[in-house]
Amino acid sequence: MLSHPLTGVIPPLVTPLLDADELDVDGLEKLIEHVLAGGVHGLFLLGTTGEGPSLSFRLQQEVIQESTRIIRRRVPVMVGISHSSFAESLRLAEHAASCNADAVVLAPPYYFPAGQPELLEYLEDLTPRLPLPMFLYNMPSMTKIHIEVDTLRRAADIPGIGGFKDSSGNMVRFHEFLQVMRDRPDFSILMGPEELLAEAVIFGGHGGVSGGANLFPRLFVDLYEAARDLNMPRVKQLQEHLFNVRKLYGLGKYTSTFIKGVKCALNLKGICSDVMAEPFKAFRQPEREKVAQVLSAVER
Amino acid sequence: MLSHPLTGVIPPLVTPLLDADELDVDGLEKLIEHVLAGGVHGLFLLGTTGEGPSLSFRLQQEVIQESTRIIRRRVPVMVGISHSSFAESLRLAEHAASCNADAVVLAPPYYFPAGQPELLEYLEDLTPRLPLPMFLYNMPSMTKIHIEVDTLRRAADIPGIGGFKDSSGNMVRFHEFLQVMRDRPDFSILMGPEELLAEAVIFGGHGGVSGGANLFPRLFVDLYEAARDLNMPRVKQLQEHLFNVRKLYGLGKYTSTFIKGVKCALNLKGICSDVMAEPFKAFRQPEREKVAQVLSAVER
Amino acid sequence: MLSHPLTGVIPPLVTPLLDADELDVDGLEKLIEHVLAGGVHGLFLLGTTGEGPSLSFRLQQEVIQESTRIIRRRVPVMVGISHSSFAESLRLAEHAASCNADAVVLAPPYYFPAGQPELLEYLEDLTPRLPLPMFLYNMPSMTKIHIEVDTLRRAADIPGIGGFKDSSGNMVRFHEFLQVMRDRPDFSILMGPEELLAEAVIFGGHGGVSGGANLFPRLFVDLYEAARDLNMPRVKQLQEHLFNVRKLYGLGKYTSTFIKGVKCALNLKGICSDVMAEPFKAFRQPEREKVAQVLSAVER
Amino acid sequence: MLSHPLTGVIPPLVTPLLDADELDVDGLEKLIEHVLAGGVHGLFLLGTTGEGPSLSFRLQQEVIQESTRIIRRRVPVMVGISHSSFAESLRLAEHAASCNADAVVLAPPYYFPAGQPELLEYLEDLTPRLPLPMFLYNMPSMTKIHIEVDTLRRAADIPGIGGFKDSSGNMVRFHEFLQVMRDRPDFSILMGPEELLAEAVIFGGHGGVSGGANLFPRLFVDLYEAARDLNMPRVKQLQEHLFNVRKLYGLGKYTSTFIKGVKCALNLKGICSDVMAEPFKAFRQPEREKVAQVLSAVER
Asked: How many structural domains compose chain B?
């Protein structure tokens, strides 16, 4: 079901929770229908925005099972399997395959930072054993390592790796990735940070894994299409709107503020619970009020 | 079985492996007898040196079960339960308790870096549910967060937290930790980096979790005792020897070189296998020969 | 002579040297004529690419004097006055004014990293005493501090600050700078890294301080104009060429490789000497040969 | 007048100012007499604590001239000549020699971070031209580079380099420096951070450049002597006092809080002005009151 290359907007789905280890199945259903109604081109489960690494293995399995059931193959489903343990990444990939997911997404092991040759060997060991196509995920702020351009170039020759998602926010390097993969039109290069979706697509990237698309899927689909069509006046207009939406993301402190802001806004919109997995907690009242204010300004 | 405070040398045991996901039980037994014969005061399973976060949950359980069986309560056993997921840390702690381990050791969740207040809340949520006393583990190079002095001071008031292991290598902050905990003689403050064991103990620390004690347990026990007794000429003599031993640790590249060096030397000494868990591989021949050279120089 | 806002390509001129403390005046003349012939819109002296902070005060004065003499007001001249000492920055600004330069460029003091409020107070103290309009320069890799969006917003209200040059390479933040300055059409926002020139201009930036324009001024002028005109096919074609040119910049090691590569290529093209100021040295033969190869491939 | 190796407590003198660019000569005299009365073994002018890099060249010259006049060769005088420009470092060294200073202190050029081989070549170029013995200064938080152990080992063979001051705070590396220089009893290894003075001396270091000795010179001289004599009960008692004194250093925000705290306390003790060089300002009333409180608690 996966196109080659995969293109478009693939939101990293937040994981609605009733309690730290209990899935909000109703919320999940509403959320999935909300983003699909916005026209997104795929869904990414258990990513950073989905708090994947914070969830128990049991809950990760449940997220995959329930989400694939709800999605009913309307769009491709990608599943994050990043783990500090090789064997656990493999185990989760097998579960994803058994639920008919379409691909897995893998960041480097995130406890020990591997050197680039070590990382490449690790990918050579793991990829042949994966039951699904794999997208490599560059997330240096969490994994402590940058996937270097030469490492990507070599990794792309391992059968089974279908694409690359770059969440480093380093736009110079993203251009290098694009340049070095020019002869591989089947290989998908996706942008992480939503603020850079438009330029990534303008310069040849295939789409984005935009966290804000949980909230405003249509905005990101429109932005993707305008960029793809090089409709620059439209791109600028949508980009300006996007930078207003972003005010939702910086209302708390610490790394967690983005996910807290998105979940809080989804809760205010009546879509799902805002419970966070440990080590985080939902916004308390003062931040919640600020989210409500920004939301009403944005939606006016 | 735990003393208050826990004192002495507690090696972070390497995990002997026959294959990436298969325990070297014979090697484990020889290794444990080797370090116990050296007079160590406790053992720490599944730490960073033990490649804990790289092992599957199944293998982690086996390590705990086999190690506690072999140790037969001759020394206290501490078990690393650090994980990116709260529920998985809890699950491993329960297994450790069922095997009659004496304590657990917990670093902050290592995917998302929590802010200090978030970390404190996390500890307040987790600690009461743990079936064993917990030692807090500061390991910023892996977890991306420093446990701050004020956070330790507050965490120490949570019932169930019995001590602190600082692997930051920041000696100024270690002194601050010692100063702020002066009124808590029951609370154990342990040094991670073995190069700083002596001064940590001289200035009031309770001992160290010295990786090199896998290889040369007696050296570290002697150093600990000399430091405890403020026998400075002896401390300096042993410290000089330790800095020769350290040449074993820098023979490869990348973060992994320390563990690779220790496992390779243990293998050369006939104690256990040198197989590494992914994403790492054992030293190849060139590095192995250098390890042999340093080893023979050190043991002469 | 300065337009408001200043727009276009303003190369940060390399400083041709005969010896560590001796200007290559002939080389300087050829270099200036070379870049002016390429159609650039201004010149920036004593920036990072110009090794400004490595030069003696005497030599800095000479660079300004000779350059302004050669340029003869054909384009606006900006002069870097960044220094760890307030008084020395001021002294250099006064010399620049006496030579009829058009503006000065100032990065935060680069020994002590100031906090944002400290930086703002420093700007409030310094700017009124400057005899020329000032452009603020964000260069975190050298100064250790990021100029934050809110600091720029406040600094822009200090009379005398005419623009901002962002060399952080952080494109997300660059968009934030653009958004927050939308109501100040007179205030110039310039991009440092040449790889991001095109998208900076596409999204509303005013131009770039592109180091590669020392070598290929026409390429950057063309790229700027294509981006300004939203001529995307042309932008992509020129961008691809630019990424071939960039191969000149990574042929050595360390931070210095960019400047060494540019000076070596200028020397091979017969424009000026490749002597570097301390603590650097010109490329030796092996790197020089690689530069020659890339150059001939690029110019074919 | 310099002993080989230089030993003891050498305070990095703060620079008393009446205005941003005006020396407080009376304050300087009182300060020098205050620290000399405390028994210090040398004085270090224009270091980080002396805000050396923030001062104009003119003011730096005046500081050297007035200080050497006041000191009258009662103790050795070291002068910081760190600069981003080779020629300016040299120029300042020549002034220091003309004032009969005893040595210069040099950190790596602090704008461009040199690679280790570049740094070594720079030292090979500069040192023979210096008119005074040079102490190499490791200050990575400001210069962005760590002087590596192997670089120090090679630098120590350049005639004219007489010692090393390590302000990295990395105690593991300090031990490595001590080990690698064991066969050079004439070469002085000094500790920067005062919190580590005692252990540095216990393990073979020659003394320390302790900022707090501006305020409490006798405390640091006593601590140095107790450590040198391996009088551990005395060391611990003084160390505890030192950690109370340190509360003066963290009362503001940002990197500048240490110097602001010391200058404020000196002002409260009636010794000198607390004016700071740009980009900093003296503590305002709220912080000043906190300094007064800590001071009275410490001096009780």
From this structure: 1
